[in-house]
Amino acid sequence: MRDTRPLLLASDFPAIQREVPETLQVNLGYLCNLSCIHCHVNAGPKRTELMAREQIDQVLAVLQQRHFNTLDLTGGAPEMNPHFRYLVEQARELGITVIDRCNLTILLESGYEDLAEFLASQEVEIVASLPCYAEQNVAEQRGKGVFERSIEALKILNALGYGQGDALKLNLVYNPNGTFLPPPQAALEQEYKAHLQQDFDLQFDQLFTITNMPIKRYGAMLLAKGEYDSYMQLLKDNYRSENLSTLMCRRLISVDWQGYLYDCDFNQMLDLPIHSPVNNDGEQATLIGSDRTRPHLRELLKTDFTEQTIVVGEHCYACTAGQGSSCGGSLVEE
Protein backbone atom coordinates (compact mmCIF):
# COMPACT_ATOMS: atom_id res chain seq x y z
CA MET A 1 0.00 0.00 0.00
CA ARG A 2 1.41 3.39 -1.01
CA ASP A 3 1.78 6.00 1.70
CA THR A 4 0.84 9.67 1.34
CA ARG A 5 2.91 10.72 4.37
CA PRO A 6 5.97 11.96 2.39
CA LEU A 7 3.66 14.14 0.31
CA LEU A 8 2.08 15.83 3.35
CA LEU A 9 5.07 16.91 5.44
CA ALA A 10 6.10 20.07 3.57
CA SER A 11 3.23 22.54 3.72
CA ASP A 12 2.33 26.22 3.64
CA PHE A 13 -0.54 25.67 6.07
CA PRO A 14 -0.59 28.60 8.55
CA ALA A 15 0.87 28.25 12.03
CA ILE A 16 -1.64 27.66 14.85
CA GLN A 17 -1.36 27.32 18.62
CA ARG A 18 -3.16 25.20 21.17
CA GLU A 19 -5.51 26.82 23.65
CA VAL A 20 -6.36 25.19 26.99
CA PRO A 21 -6.92 21.48 26.15
CA GLU A 22 -10.35 20.22 27.18
CA THR A 23 -10.55 16.82 25.46
CA LEU A 24 -8.22 13.86 25.84
CA GLN A 25 -8.75 11.68 22.78
CA VAL A 26 -7.37 8.18 23.32
CA ASN A 27 -6.89 5.55 20.63
CA LEU A 28 -7.32 2.22 22.42
CA GLY A 29 -5.94 0.19 19.53
CA TYR A 30 -6.28 -0.67 15.85
CA LEU A 31 -8.23 -3.91 16.28
CA CYS A 32 -11.63 -3.64 14.60
CA ASN A 33 -14.34 -5.96 13.33
CA LEU A 34 -14.56 -3.93 10.08
CA SER A 35 -12.12 -2.73 7.38
CA CYS A 36 -13.68 0.43 5.93
CA ILE A 37 -12.10 1.98 2.82
CA HIS A 38 -12.26 5.53 4.24
CA CYS A 39 -10.51 4.47 7.48
CA HIS A 40 -7.53 6.72 8.21
CA VAL A 41 -6.28 4.24 10.83
CA ASN A 42 -5.98 1.11 8.66
CA ALA A 43 -7.91 -0.67 11.40
CA GLY A 44 -9.13 -4.23 10.90
CA PRO A 45 -9.69 -7.70 12.37
CA LYS A 46 -6.02 -8.69 12.00
CA ARG A 47 -4.52 -5.74 13.85
CA THR A 48 -2.98 -6.58 17.22
CA GLU A 49 -2.11 -3.15 18.62
CA LEU A 50 -4.04 -2.56 21.87
CA MET A 51 -3.43 -0.15 24.75
CA ALA A 52 -2.20 -1.99 27.85
CA ARG A 53 -3.53 -1.61 31.41
CA GLU A 54 -0.43 0.42 32.39
CA GLN A 55 -1.26 3.13 29.86
CA ILE A 56 -4.97 2.94 30.75
CA ASP A 57 -4.09 3.78 34.35
CA GLN A 58 -1.88 6.65 33.15
CA VAL A 59 -4.86 8.02 31.22
CA LEU A 60 -6.92 7.92 34.41
CA ALA A 61 -4.14 9.63 36.37
CA VAL A 62 -4.08 12.45 33.81
CA LEU A 63 -7.86 12.83 33.98
CA GLN A 64 -7.70 13.00 37.76
CA GLN A 65 -4.88 15.56 37.95
CA ARG A 66 -5.42 17.79 34.90
CA HIS A 67 -8.41 19.81 33.72
CA PHE A 68 -9.78 17.69 30.89
CA ASN A 69 -13.55 17.44 30.92
CA THR A 70 -14.00 14.92 28.08
CA LEU A 71 -12.49 11.51 27.32
CA ASP A 72 -12.94 10.66 23.63
CA LEU A 73 -12.33 6.96 22.94
CA THR A 74 -11.38 5.85 19.42
CA GLY A 75 -9.90 2.86 17.62
CA GLY A 76 -10.24 0.59 15.66
CA ALA A 77 -13.25 -0.44 17.59
CA PRO A 78 -12.34 0.95 21.04
CA GLU A 79 -14.75 -1.49 22.69
CA MET A 80 -12.53 -4.40 21.62
CA ASN A 81 -9.80 -3.31 24.03
CA PRO A 82 -10.10 -5.66 27.05
CA HIS A 83 -9.78 -2.69 29.44
CA PHE A 84 -12.47 -0.56 27.75
CA ARG A 85 -15.14 -1.04 30.42
CA TYR A 86 -12.71 -0.48 33.27
CA LEU A 87 -11.56 2.81 31.71
CA VAL A 88 -15.13 3.99 31.11
CA GLU A 89 -16.26 3.17 34.65
CA GLN A 90 -13.29 4.86 36.28
CA ALA A 91 -13.55 7.97 34.09
CA ARG A 92 -17.25 8.32 34.81
CA GLU A 93 -16.55 8.08 38.55
CA LEU A 94 -14.30 11.10 38.08
CA GLY A 95 -17.19 13.00 36.50
CA ILE A 96 -15.62 12.95 33.04
CA THR A 97 -17.83 12.98 29.94
CA VAL A 98 -17.01 9.85 27.93
CA ILE A 99 -17.47 9.60 24.15
CA ASP A 100 -17.39 6.21 22.44
CA ARG A 101 -16.69 6.36 18.69
CA CYS A 102 -18.67 3.27 17.83
CA ASN A 103 -19.05 1.53 14.46
CA LEU A 104 -22.46 0.18 15.61
CA THR A 105 -21.89 -3.34 14.30
CA ILE A 106 -19.69 -4.15 17.30
CA LEU A 107 -22.88 -4.14 19.41
CA LEU A 108 -23.98 -7.28 17.56
CA GLU A 109 -20.71 -9.23 17.72
CA SER A 110 -20.45 -12.36 19.83
CA GLY A 111 -19.24 -11.48 23.31
CA TYR A 112 -20.51 -7.90 23.08
CA GLU A 113 -24.23 -8.58 23.42
CA ASP A 114 -24.48 -6.55 26.65
CA LEU A 115 -22.28 -3.69 25.44
CA ALA A 116 -25.17 -1.36 24.57
CA GLU A 117 -26.66 -1.80 28.05
CA PHE A 118 -23.26 -1.07 29.60
CA LEU A 119 -22.86 2.14 27.59
CA ALA A 120 -26.34 3.26 28.61
CA SER A 121 -25.70 2.47 32.28
CA GLN A 122 -22.60 4.68 32.20
CA GLU A 123 -24.34 7.43 30.18
CA VAL A 124 -21.63 7.23 27.54
CA GLU A 125 -22.14 9.55 24.57
CA ILE A 126 -22.10 7.52 21.35
CA VAL A 127 -20.72 8.89 18.10
CA ALA A 128 -21.58 6.29 15.49
CA SER A 129 -20.42 5.95 11.91
CA LEU A 130 -23.26 5.82 9.38
CA PRO A 131 -21.88 7.34 6.16
CA CYS A 132 -25.28 7.39 4.50
CA TYR A 133 -28.95 6.61 5.14
CA ALA A 134 -28.95 4.49 1.96
CA GLU A 135 -27.77 0.87 1.96
CA GLN A 136 -25.69 0.97 -1.23
CA ASN A 137 -23.47 3.87 -0.21
CA VAL A 138 -22.76 2.30 3.18
CA ALA A 139 -21.93 -1.05 1.57
CA GLU A 140 -19.43 0.62 -0.77
CA GLN A 141 -17.56 2.23 2.12
CA ARG A 142 -17.92 -0.29 4.93
CA GLY A 143 -18.78 -3.65 3.38
CA LYS A 144 -21.76 -5.78 2.50
CA GLY A 145 -24.28 -6.26 5.28
CA VAL A 146 -22.91 -3.43 7.44
CA PHE A 147 -25.88 -1.15 6.78
CA GLU A 148 -28.44 -3.73 7.92
CA ARG A 149 -26.46 -4.50 11.06
CA SER A 150 -26.03 -0.78 11.78
CA ILE A 151 -29.78 -0.26 11.58
CA GLU A 152 -30.32 -3.18 13.95
CA ALA A 153 -27.81 -1.70 16.39
CA LEU A 154 -29.48 1.72 16.20
CA LYS A 155 -32.80 0.11 17.09
CA ILE A 156 -31.19 -1.42 20.16
CA LEU A 157 -29.80 1.97 21.20
CA ASN A 158 -33.13 3.73 20.64
CA ALA A 159 -34.85 1.10 22.78
CA LEU A 160 -32.42 1.92 25.60
CA GLY A 161 -33.25 5.63 25.36
CA TYR A 162 -30.41 6.81 23.12
CA GLY A 163 -31.13 9.54 20.57
CA GLN A 164 -34.26 10.86 22.27
CA GLY A 165 -32.88 14.32 23.08
CA ASP A 166 -32.15 13.44 26.71
CA ALA A 167 -29.05 12.31 28.64
CA LEU A 168 -28.17 9.39 26.34
CA LYS A 169 -26.64 11.17 23.35
CA LEU A 170 -26.49 9.39 20.00
CA ASN A 171 -24.75 11.28 17.19
CA LEU A 172 -24.11 9.92 13.70
CA VAL A 173 -21.17 10.54 11.38
CA TYR A 174 -21.28 11.13 7.63
CA ASN A 175 -18.22 10.67 5.39
CA PRO A 176 -18.33 11.46 1.65
CA ASN A 177 -18.46 8.44 -0.61
CA GLY A 178 -16.04 9.96 -3.10
CA THR A 179 -13.55 12.77 -3.69
CA PHE A 180 -15.81 15.65 -2.71
CA LEU A 181 -16.55 17.73 0.37
CA PRO A 182 -19.46 16.99 2.70
CA PRO A 183 -22.68 18.89 1.98
CA PRO A 184 -23.93 21.46 4.53
CA GLN A 185 -24.30 19.65 7.84
CA ALA A 186 -27.61 21.12 9.02
CA ALA A 187 -29.46 20.32 5.80
CA LEU A 188 -28.01 16.80 5.60
CA GLU A 189 -28.97 16.16 9.22
CA GLN A 190 -32.58 16.88 8.38
CA GLU A 191 -32.41 14.45 5.44
CA TYR A 192 -30.94 11.75 7.68
CA LYS A 193 -33.60 12.27 10.35
CA ALA A 194 -36.44 12.19 7.84
CA HIS A 195 -35.24 9.03 6.06
CA LEU A 196 -34.30 7.10 9.20
CA GLN A 197 -37.59 8.01 10.85
CA GLN A 198 -39.69 7.16 7.82
CA ASP A 199 -37.88 3.98 6.79
CA PHE A 200 -36.87 2.50 10.14
CA ASP A 201 -38.58 4.54 12.89
CA LEU A 202 -35.15 5.59 14.20
CA GLN A 203 -34.07 8.74 16.04
CA PHE A 204 -30.71 10.34 16.79
CA ASP A 205 -29.50 13.66 18.19
CA GLN A 206 -27.01 15.23 15.78
CA LEU A 207 -25.23 14.47 12.51
CA PHE A 208 -21.50 15.19 12.21
CA THR A 209 -20.11 15.65 8.69
CA ILE A 210 -16.41 14.80 8.42
CA THR A 211 -14.15 15.38 5.41
CA ASN A 212 -12.14 12.32 4.37
CA MET A 213 -8.46 12.59 5.29
CA PRO A 214 -5.90 11.87 2.52
CA ILE A 215 -3.93 9.49 4.75
CA LYS A 216 -3.52 5.75 5.37
CA ARG A 217 -6.13 3.58 3.62
CA TYR A 218 -8.03 6.46 2.03
CA GLY A 219 -4.82 8.18 0.95
CA ALA A 220 -3.55 4.96 -0.62
CA MET A 221 -6.80 4.64 -2.55
CA LEU A 222 -6.42 8.20 -3.88
CA LEU A 223 -2.90 7.42 -5.08
CA ALA A 224 -3.96 4.14 -6.67
CA LYS A 225 -6.74 5.87 -8.61
CA GLY A 226 -4.60 8.84 -9.60
CA GLU A 227 -6.90 11.18 -7.66
CA TYR A 228 -4.56 12.40 -4.93
CA ASP A 229 -3.48 15.65 -6.59
CA SER A 230 -6.99 16.66 -7.62
CA TYR A 231 -8.35 15.89 -4.14
CA MET A 232 -5.64 17.99 -2.45
CA GLN A 233 -6.37 20.82 -4.88
CA LEU A 234 -10.06 20.59 -3.96
CA LEU A 235 -9.18 20.95 -0.28
CA LYS A 236 -6.92 23.94 -0.92
CA ASP A 237 -9.35 25.66 -3.27
CA ASN A 238 -11.98 25.52 -0.53
CA TYR A 239 -9.71 26.65 2.32
CA ARG A 240 -11.41 29.10 4.69
CA SER A 241 -9.30 30.97 7.22
CA GLU A 242 -12.28 31.46 9.57
CA ASN A 243 -12.10 27.73 10.36
CA LEU A 244 -8.69 28.14 12.01
CA SER A 245 -10.10 29.48 15.28
CA THR A 246 -12.30 26.43 15.90
CA LEU A 247 -10.01 23.58 14.79
CA MET A 248 -10.34 20.63 17.17
CA CYS A 249 -6.57 20.38 17.69
CA ARG A 250 -6.59 23.71 19.50
CA ARG A 251 -8.48 22.23 22.46
CA LEU A 252 -7.52 18.56 22.26
CA ILE A 253 -4.60 16.22 22.90
CA SER A 254 -4.47 12.85 21.16
CA VAL A 255 -2.94 9.71 22.69
CA ASP A 256 -1.92 6.60 20.77
CA TRP A 257 -2.24 3.02 21.99
CA GLN A 258 1.28 3.16 23.45
CA GLY A 259 0.63 6.39 25.35
CA TYR A 260 2.47 8.84 23.08
CA LEU A 261 1.03 12.30 22.51
CA TYR A 262 -0.09 14.04 19.32
CA ASP A 263 -1.97 17.19 18.34
CA CYS A 264 -4.76 15.18 16.73
CA ASP A 265 -5.71 11.69 15.65
CA PHE A 266 -4.64 12.40 12.08
CA ASN A 267 -1.13 13.47 13.13
CA GLN A 268 -1.03 10.30 15.20
CA MET A 269 -1.64 8.19 12.11
CA LEU A 270 1.11 10.10 10.27
CA ASP A 271 3.55 9.63 13.17
CA LEU A 272 3.88 13.38 13.73
CA PRO A 273 4.22 13.68 17.53
CA ILE A 274 3.26 16.71 19.57
CA HIS A 275 6.05 19.23 20.19
CA SER A 276 8.19 18.39 23.17
CA PRO A 277 7.57 20.27 26.43
CA VAL A 278 9.31 23.59 26.98
CA ASN A 279 12.72 23.00 28.56
CA ASN A 280 14.36 24.92 31.40
CA ASP A 281 15.77 27.49 28.99
CA GLY A 282 12.33 28.30 27.64
CA GLU A 283 13.11 26.65 24.32
CA GLN A 284 10.90 24.15 22.55
CA ALA A 285 12.22 21.33 20.37
CA THR A 286 10.28 19.91 17.46
CA LEU A 287 10.20 16.12 17.44
CA ILE A 288 9.10 14.76 14.07
CA GLY A 289 9.08 11.06 13.25
CA SER A 290 9.52 7.94 15.34
CA ASP A 291 13.31 7.85 15.62
CA ARG A 292 13.59 10.32 18.52
CA THR A 293 12.14 10.62 22.01
CA ARG A 294 8.44 11.48 21.91
CA PRO A 295 6.31 13.12 24.63
CA HIS A 296 4.30 10.54 26.55
CA LEU A 297 1.27 10.51 28.84
CA ARG A 298 3.70 10.91 31.74
CA GLU A 299 4.49 14.41 30.46
CA LEU A 300 0.85 15.43 30.88
CA LEU A 301 1.15 14.89 34.61
CA LYS A 302 3.83 17.57 34.95
CA THR A 303 3.66 19.77 31.85
CA ASP A 304 1.17 22.34 30.54
CA PHE A 305 0.82 21.97 26.77
CA THR A 306 -1.25 25.17 26.45
CA GLU A 307 -0.04 27.73 23.86
CA GLN A 308 2.18 25.22 22.10
CA THR A 309 2.65 25.47 18.37
CA ILE A 310 0.71 22.66 16.67
CA VAL A 311 2.41 20.39 14.13
CA VAL A 312 0.74 20.96 10.75
CA GLY A 313 0.94 19.49 7.24
CA GLU A 314 -0.91 19.41 3.94
CA HIS A 315 -3.60 17.15 5.43
CA CYS A 316 -4.70 20.03 7.68
CA TYR A 317 -6.42 21.56 4.64
CA ALA A 318 -9.06 18.83 5.02
CA CYS A 319 -10.10 20.31 8.37
CA THR A 320 -10.33 23.87 7.01
CA ALA A 321 -12.03 23.24 3.65
CA GLY A 322 -15.58 24.46 3.15
CA GLN A 323 -17.64 24.30 6.32
CA GLY A 324 -14.67 22.79 8.13
CA SER A 325 -14.30 19.36 9.67
CA SER A 326 -13.60 17.95 13.10
CA CYS A 327 -14.44 14.95 15.24
CA GLY A 328 -17.50 16.97 16.25
CA GLY A 329 -18.56 17.70 12.69
CA SER A 330 -18.49 20.96 10.75
CA LEU A 331 -16.84 24.03 12.24
CA VAL A 332 -19.14 26.72 10.80
CA GLU A 333 -22.76 26.89 9.71
CA GLU A 334 -23.32 27.02 5.95
Description of the molecule:
By secondary structure, this protein is of the alpha/beta class. It has one domain (5-320): TIM Barrel. 31% of the residues lie in helices and 11% in strands. The chain is built from twelve helices and eight strands. The protein has helices spanning 5-8, 53-65, 84-93, 115-121, 135-142, 146-159, 185-200, 216-224, 228-237, 265-269, 297-300, 317-320; strands at residues 23-27, 70-74, 97-102, 125-129, 170-174, 206-209, 252-255, 261-262. The chain has an eight-stranded mixed beta sheet. A hairpin with a 5-residue loop joins strand 7 and strand 8 (261-262). The radius of gyration is 19 Å and the shape is globular. The protein starts with a helix and ends in a 14-residue tail after the last helix.
- How far apart, in Å, are the first and last alpha carbons? 36 Å
Number of domains: 1
Determine the CATH topology: TIM Barrel
Number of strands: 8
Q: Count of helices? A: 12
